[in-house]
Amino acid sequence: MSERDEQLRQEAYEQVEKHKTMVEADPYRLKYHIMPPVGLLNDPNGFIQFNGTYHMFYQWMPFKTGHGAKFWGHYTSEDLVTWTEQPIALTPSEWYEKDGCYSGSAIEHDGKLYLFYTGNVKDEDGNRESYQCMAISEDGIHFEKKGPVLELPEEYTAHFRDPKVWKEAGRFYMVIGTQNHDEQGRAVLFVSDDLHAWEHVGVVTGSHTDQLDEFGFMWECPDIFHLNGQDVLAVSPQGLEAKGMHYNNVYQSGYFVGSLNYETGHLQHGEFQELDRGFEFYAPQTTVDDQGRRILVGWMGVPDQYEEEQPTIKHKWVHTLTMPRELSLENGKVIQKPIKELETKRGAQMKYEDADIKNEVKQFGGINGLSVELQIDIKKNLSKSFDIEIRNNMRLIYNRKEGLLTLERKSFVNGRTESRHCYVEDLKQLRLFLDTSSLEVFVNGGEEVFTSRMFPDAENTTILFAANGSVTADISRWHLHV
Ligand code: FRU
């Protein structure tokens, strides 16, 4: 550990100590999501199961609630639900990363844990350099930095980052998010036989390539994985213009399904589909665990979108990760299901069977809460519209005729109503995960997901059901005791 590293660690821990009381006093602290102990969190990084334990690293700025020279914070878990804070994994201590140990991934090799991340460097005039770096650990907790393993190829600007590494047929592959000199965002593939020496393979896909027209000026956080016999590229392109109910956040996260040619790097793919319909979701990363599950976690935030207005800032922290979701592919669509381990944390169930909601606003005793799971199975729907109001702050509205599901929120910036939508042909089930200041809605077994922060009156736990027409549903609530 260098002196600078030691010093940065100490300064970060001092921040944690200094603001601990203030942070913990925030009623918006979550109960079953990963948050920074102080400061700002953004992307999930290095998500892996190593020697049986799940590791989650994250982009962390300990010194303020804004972006800057990022650290890698670190949590571990045995069950993907309860997370234990670990010592800081990486600090931006060396010349090749002095302005941030930016996003990256983890892979196990010969019993060791390897991290790959982007060293971000800026000079006085704001010119950027970018190095893909490696760090190795025997125990999964202490990392030895090996420095840059891949320098910036000529074709790209220094917006070249977020390496995701995996193994396929005995070789290692790395996909990187890039921008070329014509401001076209692309995902690019590299190959290695030893994790140290990397060779450029080719462009996976991107803006102004054979399969896409204009598709963003920069692609961040790419991830390539197999899912039910196909290849999926998940990526966060920046610069897509809003189109009707699509691309309504400042930046998007979505995926392409297809087939990757490992010789050329080319992904033959279908259309870009958004991963999430809510207000806050970005830069997801996946891993595969020893049960063969493909699990995804995202950042419950979006760069440059209401970041400075987040109400938790006055308590010296900001942002959270999403809960882990298990992925599968059905008819070319990624299905996301809440990780099943969360069910083991369910407290006593409150259940209403065949509950009728008929031209009224209705409250069901016990169907409320701050950190709860709600399951609504719709058995009969003869309504024009059916809606669920959450803590006088968010509202889910299903318009049956149009097959349109809407999530409304009272903006925490100006109190106005803002909304996000998607089509759901036949609404059968909603699973809502509320956690103090977040909401994750899984529609029809994970066909669609809405992920959002919410900042209602901290005491308000009310949930109201309303129908214009009549709806019959089974309604359950579990407190989540994590
Ligand atoms: C995405 C991102 C990454 C980068 C990191 C920096 O949110 O901009 O591209 O590596 O955050 O914190």
From TrEMBL:
Molecular functions (GO terms): beta-fructofuranosidase activity
SMART domains referenced in this protein's UniProt entry, alphabetically: Glyco_32
Function: Enables the bacterium to metabolize sucrose as a sole carbon source.
Enzyme category, top tier: hydrolase
All residue ranges annotated as the Glycosyl hydrolase family 32 N-terminal domain in the record: 33-338
Organism: Pontibacillus halophilus JSM 076056 = DSM 19796
Catalytic reactions on record: Hydrolysis of terminal non-reducing beta-D-fructofuranoside residues in beta-D-fructofuranosides
Protein name: Sucrose-6-phosphate hydrolase
Domain of life according to the entry: Bacteria
Keyword DNA-binding: no
Gene3D superfamilies registered for this protein in UniProt: Exo-inulinase, domain 1, Glycosyl hydrolase domain, family 43
Similarity comment: Belongs to the glycosyl hydrolase 32 family.
Pfam families in the record: Glyco_hydro_32C, Glyco_hydro_32N
EC number: 3.2.1.26
Signal peptide: none
One GO BP annotation of this record: sucrose metabolic process
UniProtKB keywords: Carbohydrate metabolism, Cytoplasm, Glycosidase, Hydrolase
Record domain Glycosyl hydrolase family 32 C-terminal: where: 341-475
Annotated localization: Cytoplasm
Keyword Hydrolase among record annotations: yes
Cellular-component GO terms for this entry: cytoplasm
Top-level taxonomy: Bacteria, Bacillati, Bacillota, Bacilli, Bacillales
Pathway field: Glycan biosynthesis; sucrose metabolism
